[in-house]
Amino acid sequence: MKINGKRIVFKGVNRHEFSCDTGRAISKDDMITDIKLMKSHNINAVRTSHYPNQSAWYELCDEYGLYVIDETNLETHGTWGYGDGTLSDHNIPGSKPEWLDNVLDRCNSMFQRDKNHPSIVIWSLGNESFGGDNFIAMHDFLKQADPTRLVHYEGIFHCRESEAASDIESTMYTKPQDVEKYALSNPQKPFIICEYSHAMGNSCGGLHLYWEVFERYDILQGAFIWDWIDQAIRTTTPDGIEYLAYGGDFGETPHDGNFCGNGLIFADRSITPKLDEVKKCYQNVKFEGVQIAEGQIRITNRFLFTDLHTYLLKWEIHLEGEVSQSGTLHISLPPEEDIEVLIPFAPIESFEKEAILTISMVTTEDSKWATAGHEIAWEQFALTPYLPDLVSSVENDVTTSAQLDITELEEDILISAGDMSLKFSRITGDLSSYNSSGKECLLEPARPNFWRAVTDNDLGNKLSERCGVWKNAHEDRQLIRLDWKKEELLCSVTSHYTIATNPITSLTIDYQIHPDGTIHIHQQLNPGDDLPEIPEIGMLFVLDQSLDTIAWYGRGPHDNYWDRKTGARIGRYSGKVEDQFVPYLRPQECGNKTDVRFASLTEGTIGHGLRFEAPSLMELCALPWTPSELEASDHIYKLPPSDKTVLRINYKQMGVGGDDSWSARTHDEFILPCNRPYSFMFTMQPIKG
User: Fold this and answer.
1) Is 128 a catalytic residue?
2) Using an 8 Å Cβ cutoff, are 62 and 117 in contact?
3) Among this protein's residues, is 195 annotated catalytic?
4) Fewer CB within 10 Å, N- or C-terminus of the chain?
5) Residue 605: its pLDDT value, please?
């Protein structure tokens, strides 16, 4: 498929006409909000799923510049089944002659009304209605009336006897490896995925995998995410609490629950972190390191008709998140070409701080959809490695006058030095108290954690059933030995556990306590053979709510996951713990941060608190609620009032997945299998306000 002789790649989204306040009757302002968000997040195409839209939408697509698949108002989902393969009497419209005039009228009405909109590049015959001669007739009608445009129909994938109904091979929710199989099968038609990366709740994991495949094969020409906006109604409870309602909230039956909550934006048109991932995967400028230490990079212009002289290249070097050098370059690069460019930064002479080069391309003038300075593409390159500072506590031990004391009680072990005291339970082996400068930090004993609040995708692929053994693994621990000893400059406490999985899992947590209150925590997990994947591996701390501000050096600023972090850049970020919560229709896992070097939780921005660091990259999540509290609430307004900060420090959390939301599991490269041991170390240190 070509536009003016250039191979097009559709970086698309499906869009229902919807407003949380007016339902299907959306305003032009709603449409302008949508189209500006699409353009500013590198979306270049929209499918009008599953009906012709208001005429004003096509006018805006003409004006702002979006490619459109215009779809006939036709869907008969319930008259056929996946795997049917051949036509039957149940299929509608199928080849039934009594339906021919009806379906031709529908596609003709669409064609006659919309034919003069240049934004429309493809006609679609409808959605999920299997096959039959009636679709071939629709195709032939459109091709005769308009030979300049292609005709699309995904149903031929399920009914090959209707192959002639579509000029394009189109599928739904095909996994990346199967997309590649098509490209290698000597295909005769260009390929798109008309629905993919089902954006239900915390989703769109693995989106980058699709675009790695699309980049390798010319026959693969893009895909359309399902879908643009959550479909939920803004309403109030009898007590006057405003919330976004979904299926069943009005007492109706049957309904589809929150299955309508699969948008890149929320129903009120605020954006989700998924949209940031889309923007990065869809960007039209590619940056690659050539001799990155010398500043040599390769830039590829993936635009079809735009020279990069339209934009400004900006570059910055950050030393552990702080800008140390910066500059700009003007580059002329024609469409579909590449060039090597030298970024003129001064040599990095010290390895004391991690140096990261960030390159971005920004607009130079205001446009209808963005102001000057809007970023359209970016990339980061490590110039020097991150070297964690894990020796400061030892240096402090040498200079401090405080001495560690151990007091053995019947049920506890008390460890103190100066204004710091800790308590370990001799019954559970848990760290049950951490008091610094007279302030108790822990509201509950710190504990190992192997569970996250299930996402919509987790529920769809039955993770809670398959991996349920890990949900209460912390409660199923049995302390088999507790060791403690005092050495010259530190105390060590080691808790040895078995976990009642089948077969048995063993767990050891070692705490090295220094006089200044620093604790080096080492968690060693040996899962039983043949157990299911582990949702996450780490420690959970229920902390005083006064520790309400989180700061971290890692990926951000929005939440990100092992399989959805392409669009989150490495930097220093901070914010209120309550603001890390992402308001999906149904409360679920959210707020995670990956590739974290160090982090802190403090009272405000300068108060006392705790600092966390690891010898290797870690993950963390700070929210006002525990995973079990999130799981127990089916709406945000039902979450209990919080009097705490819940911090999870993790080796890793499995990815969120998103190939679909009803069966697809997280890709194997983003899970924590039980065929290996896991070792995780991190340091917790008091911050004096």
Assistant:
1) yes
2) yes
3) yes
4) C
5) 86
